[in-house]
Specification:
This protein has 243 residues and is an all-alpha fold. The protein is built from eight helices and no strands. The protein is elongated.
């Protein structure tokens, strides 16, 4: 009898394996709350993307408004885009927290009910989710978030920027014919064109490297492991979907 009492003390889930109506209602409210937070942070992601698109459009309008206009606005806007990318990657880290919880509830609580099964409270998913509620931790590193947002959004924006820059250099004020003209048109103040192009090559090469090196979908569940278990169990339960 003492052994049974000890087992009950160690695991409060052994007494009742099924959720009652009140507990199901509480979990439904939890789902709604996590979905709301996920939606709010997704909106914040869209906001920074919109800022990047608008500022890029302004820079292109200024650059191509006049034949004699300098391509410098396109160059300068790259620093602002990099800042927006960093902001959005940081926001994505927090969006991923709420979205992961939503996916766990959908996969392990609602899905069994929809297919005629039952949702039990003595399974692994509810204990892992409870541990994450007690001590929230990020599931995606900042560098992985930067790579993901690059592949989804900012890669296209930076690509348009590069193409526009070279189009401006090649046609304005006259079609480019010699390397000497190229160095002259790409120079910025005291910086010669060779230095400016070298810096651009390093900058965009770094972006491409980040986008490629962080593309490892099979390892996404192990990005930021839980300190106690050594693996991101909540991410594993949620699946590998990333938005």
């Amino acid at each position: 009898m003492s052994e049974n009492a000890g087992a009950t003390d160690q695991s409060p889930y052994l007494g009742a394996s099924h959720y009652n109506a009140a507990e199901i209602g509480a979990l439904a409210h939890l789902y709604r709350g996590e979905m709301y937070r996920s939606t709010v942070w997704r909106t914040r992601l869209d906001t920074t993307s919109n800022w990047a698109v608008v500022t890029t459009g302004i820079a292109l309008s200024v650059t191509f408004s006049n034949i004699a206009a300098t391509p410098l606005p396109i160059v300068l806007i790259s620093f602002l885009l990099a800042a927006f990318l960093l902001f959005e990657a940081r926001r994505y880290q927090f969006f991923d927290v709420w979205n992961t919880r939503v996916r766990v509830l959908e996969n392990h609580f609602y899905e069994p009910m929809l297919v005629g099964g039952d949702s039990r409270k003595d399974r692994e998913w509810n204990q892992v989710l409870a541990a994450d509620l007690r001590r929230m931790h990020l599931h995606t590193t900042l560098i992985d978030a930067i790579g993901l947002r690059l592949r989804r959004n900012y890669g296209w924006i930076f690509g348009i920027q590069v193409v526009s820059y070279w189009a401006k250099i090649a046609v304005h004020p006259t079609p480019l014919t010699t390397l000497a003209e190229l160095w002259e048109r790409t120079s910025v103040g005291p910086l010669p064109g060779t230095v400016v192009l070298a810096c651009g090559l390093v900058f965009y090469g770094g972006l491409v490297a980040i986008g490629i090196l962080t593309f490892h979908p099979l390892k996404r569940v192990q990005r930021l492991p839980d300190l106690a278990t050594g693996t991101d169990r909540l991410r594993a339960l949620a699946g590998n979907e990333q938005y």
